[in-house]
């Protein structure tokens, strides 16, 4: 593997960044570095396992799960106006809310303790109406059975969740309209620590967006314009990605190299809207070849693409998914000049987590592709 990396012209790992820049390991002179844009603050899990806030236009290396990865997310709004101040929520009966009672996942003493003095007590807050919503929250058991229930329709129906003795983030996605967010403790005497409630119009929970009195929006991450004519070969090459992508988003998403136009000349992976399909597309002069791969797991995978005058190939996790004969030719030399987590300078950006991307100026062999992508 070390010999393969020695031959690469671009290597990007979750290592270094500046404001508005994602920095490559290779080349080290800055010619491969990516532009980065996010017009709001955003949170991440840092290397100590604590949630912290990154400034505007500062990329995020996220250590959720212990291993760092670049975190690129869509715009989202936390529609809960008080994400951690539960004295502002409504409560039923004699439920007791004790603020600032424990150390929360951000490392400060700002988590609340909810104590149920009767069965089926709850707190609730009006939310919003949407055809699709996800409720997420950080919870930890102090005493009792460790069970809570969440509702998005004022308590007409609930989803039960288990709570452990350690902080964990739980989430439930609802496909119906939301009127009220309700958190219920089932058993009298149970005590639950609570922090960081979020409701957003997505089919999954994104990173925490803290609120204190109003809704808050986090803008999308855009990582574009990496590489150069000197680091990308137009007549043969290999692209490598280690990704955990978002499935079933609402619009098509791209990652790959191009001549920085919309569709004319590209080598890219395409994630389709409301689908598990992840497709390799090789596009020359607007004509394309493709290889389909269906992916429905929320896990990291290793992908490699090669292109040359003979074949287009896709490997995933050490397996050749497919190859097609190159019947549409190659672009002229010095055509591919940009690597983007998106297309055409940031349109339809890729969303997910990225441990590594790399580019070779040659089409690697089948043996090399197997070695490169084997988990």
Could you report the average pLDDT, rounded to the nearest whole number? 93
CATH class of the largest domain: Mainly Beta
CATH topology of the largest domain: Jelly Rolls
Helical segment tally?
Answer: 2
3D shape? elongated
Largest sheet: 8 strands, antiparallel
How much of the sequence lies in strands comes to over 45%
Distance between the termini: 12 Å
CATH architecture of the largest domain: Sandwich
Structural class, from secondary structure content?
A: mainly beta
The total beta strand count reads 31
Low-pLDDT stretches are none
State the domain count.
Answer: 2
> How large, in whole angstroms, is the Cα Rg?
23 Å
Characterization of the model:
It is a single chain. The chain has 2 domains: about 220 residues, Jelly Rolls; about 140 residues, Jelly Rolls (Sandwich). Helix content is about 5%, strand content about 45%. The strands form 7 sheets. Strands 1, 7, 8, 22, 27, 28, 29 and 31 form an 8-stranded antiparallel β-sheet that branches. Strands 10-13-18-15-16 form a 5-stranded antiparallel β-sheet, with no helix packed on it. Strands 11-12-19-14-17 form a 5-stranded antiparallel β-sheet, with no helix packed on it. β24 and β25 form a beta hairpin. The longest helix has 8 residues. The radius of gyration is 23 Å and the shape is elongated.
Features:
single chain; 375 residues; mainly beta; Jelly Rolls; 2 domains; 8-stranded antiparallel sheet; 5-stranded antiparallel sheet; 2 helices; 31 strands; 46% strand; elongated
């Amino acid at each position: 593997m070390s010999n393969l990396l020695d031959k690469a012209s671009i290597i990007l790992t979750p290592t270094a960044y500046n404001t508005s820049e994602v920095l490559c390991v290779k080349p080290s002179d800055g010619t491969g570095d990516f532009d980065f844009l996010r017009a709001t603050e955003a949170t991440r899990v840092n290397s100590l396992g604590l949630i912290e806030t990154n400034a505007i236009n500062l990329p995020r290396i996220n250590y959720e799960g212990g291993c760092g990865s670049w975190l690129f997310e869509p715009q989202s709004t936390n529609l809960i106006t008080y994400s951690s101040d539960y004295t502002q929520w409504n409560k039923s009966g004699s439920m007791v809310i004790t603020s600032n009672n424990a150390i929360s996942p951000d490392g400060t003493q700002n988590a609340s303790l909810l104590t149920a003095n009767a069965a089926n007590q709850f707190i609730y807050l009006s939310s919003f109406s949407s055809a699709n919503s996800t409720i997420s929250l950080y919870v930890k058991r102090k005493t009792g059975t460790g069970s809570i229930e969440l509702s998005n329709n004022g308590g007409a129906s609930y989803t039960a969740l288990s709570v452990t003795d350690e902080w964990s983030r739980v989430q439930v996605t609802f496909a119906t309209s939301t009127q009220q967010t309700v958190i219920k403790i089932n058993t009298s005497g149970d005590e639950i620590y609570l922090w960081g409630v979020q409701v957003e119009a997505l089919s999954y929970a994104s990173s925490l967006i803290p609120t204190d009195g109003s809704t808050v929006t986090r803008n999308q991450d855009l990582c574009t314009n990496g590489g150069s004519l000197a680091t990308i070969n137009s007549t043969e090459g290999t692209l490598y990605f280690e990704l955990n992508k978002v499935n079933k988003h609402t619009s098509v998403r791209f990652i790959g190299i191009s001549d920085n136009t919309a569709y004319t000349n590209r080598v890219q992976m395409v994630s389709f809207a409301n689908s598990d399909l992840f497709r390799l597309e090789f596009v020359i002069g607007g004509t394309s070849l493709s290889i389909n791969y269906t992916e429905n797991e929320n896990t990291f995978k290793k992908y490699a693409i090669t292109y040359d005058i003979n074949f287009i190939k896709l490997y995933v996790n050490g397996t050749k998914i497919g190859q097609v004969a190159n019947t549409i030719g190659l672009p002229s030399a010095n055509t591919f000049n940009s690597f983007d987590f998106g297309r055409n300078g940031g349109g339809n950006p890729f969303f997910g987590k990225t441990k590594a991307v790399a580019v070779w100026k040659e089409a690697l062999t089948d043996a090399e592709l197997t070695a490169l992508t084997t988990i």
